[in-house]
Amino acid sequence: MTGEATAGKRRIEPASPGFDSFIVGDVHVSYGRTVTQAHLVNFTSMAGMQLPLFINHDRAKTGPFGEPIAPGFLTASLSGGMMESVLGGNTLAGLGMDGFRFKTPVKAGDTLHAEVEIVSKKIQDAGRGILGVQVNVINQRAELVLEYTAKVLMKR
To answer: What local confidence, expressed as pLDDT, does residue 118 receive?
Structure first.
């Protein structure tokens, strides 16, 4: 229907959950994403990261993991998008992310998803609330690769 008038037709977009929709104790599971070599190259280039562990295949082969691994900040960045997909468009702002623990190396070819547990809710005012979440990033082998907590300001 590109270019055609849509007069009289309803336009319905997916509704994002609001603060009041979330229940403490619930665990929301994000989409999965496979980390690729392109992710590693682009992220390390953009961030100016130069550790052989991330960018030098020959040196990484003799290192502790036998091949290059993804920087923890890349995994954290990907998890931010996964968290956003769970919390939705009613997220107003991130207020903080704490306690980052990188538990298992991530390599190209790993598929990650985030499990976002609602751990606290605090009403800020009539239109906003603060959610506290525990984010666990899991790979395809069910290994915990990253964990942290976050607080986000949400529309009510």
So the answer is: 97
